[in-house]
Specification:
Order of helices and strands: HEEHHHHEEHHEHEEEH
CATH class of the largest domain: Alpha Beta
Low-confidence stretches: 1-21
Number of helices: 9
Number of strands: 8
Shape: elongated
Oligomer: single chain
Mean pLDDT: 91
Strand order of the largest sheet: 5-4-7-6
Radius of gyration: 32 Å
Distance between the termini: 76 Å
Helix content: 55-70%
Structural class: alpha+beta
CATH topology of the largest domain: Chitinase A, domain 3
């Protein structure tokens, strides 16, 4: 049993060593540069990224910068910078800033926003979570009114899937707009996302309809086909719960820190000279 236990310890130790080895990206004069070092370096400028999420080219660049940094650190040590008075003064200031940041981070973590608080905010502010009415439309853009009228004539009498299929074909072959290759598809849009004449026409139509006359804008003459209409709605609570909680937490934290500072100023002996 003792031999088995010793064997298990050895295997466990080897596993840990292998894991640590995998974390090591390079060594510089015997000192390791790890994935953790790379993550810290990357997140100092790109908080949402990590070493595992960037490409091979970027990984190579990050490692090169870390190697250079390690070499510069050693060079600075050889020059005696660790005893330099200006360095020591700046280091103390940085320690104070780091201490404050860490304290605030710890205080922030203590704050909890319940689902009930988030729900209460949601119920009182539903206007903030409204999704405006949207239309899913296609269009065929022509340079002149006659060409647009000709397109409308070609679509006359068609309906349903047959109408949509023919419209897509004509959009691909005749439209002068950038969406021609997609059959004129504009996706969903709200009233304020299109120029007024186009928006006014599209939002007055029903799904499956083609505009009865060309719609003139500064871009030319449009023939519009409406695929779908989504009425104004409100985002479900579950979709915005996390975002609401985050906003409430940030506001509550800011208010708490302001009150805390006011209290500290009252208790402290402050002399302004």
């Amino acid at each position: 049993m003792v031999k088995i236990a010793k064997c298990a310890i050895v295997i466990c130790g080897l596993s840990v060593m292998a894991l640590e080895a995998n974390d090591i990206l390079a060594t510089v004069d015997g000192k390791n540069i790890t994935v953790g070092d790379a993550d810290s370096f990357i997140r100092s400028s790109q908080p949402t990224l990590s070493y595992d999420t960037i490409g091979d080219k970027e990984k190579k660049q990050v490692l090169e910068r870390l190697i250079e940094k390690r070499l510069f650190v050693e060079e600075a040590k050889k020059a005696g910078i660790e005893k330099d008075p200006e360095y020591l003064e700046r280091l103390e200031r940085m320690k104070e800033d780091l201490m404050i940041n860490q304290w605030m981070k710890n205080e922030y973590k203590k704050m909890i926003i319940s689902d009930g608080e988030a729900r209460e905010f949601y119920d009182k502010n539903k206007d903030k979570f409204k999704i405006p009415e949207r239309v899913h439309a296609r269009h065929i853009l022509l340079k002149d009114e006659k060409s647009a009228k000709d397109i409308i004539s070609k679509l006359s009498g068609l309906e349903g899937d047959e109408l949509k299929k023919r419209f897509v074909e004509l959009a691909k072959s005749e439209s002068k707009g950038p969406t021609a290759s997609k059959g004129g598809d504009l996706g969903y849009f709200s009233k304020d996302q299109m120029v007024l004449p186009f928006s006014k026409a599209a939002f007055s139509m029903k799904p499956g309809e083609v505009s009865s006359k060309p719609v003139k804008t500064q871009f030319g003459y449009h023939v519009i086909y409406v695929e779908d209409v989504k009425k104004e709605s409100v985002l479900p609570f579950e979709d915005v719960k996390v975002k609401i909680a985050q906003k409430l937490k940030e506001k509550e934290f800011a208010d708490k820190m302001q009150l805390r500072m006011q209290d500290m100023k009252k208790k402290a002996k402050i002399e302004i000279k």
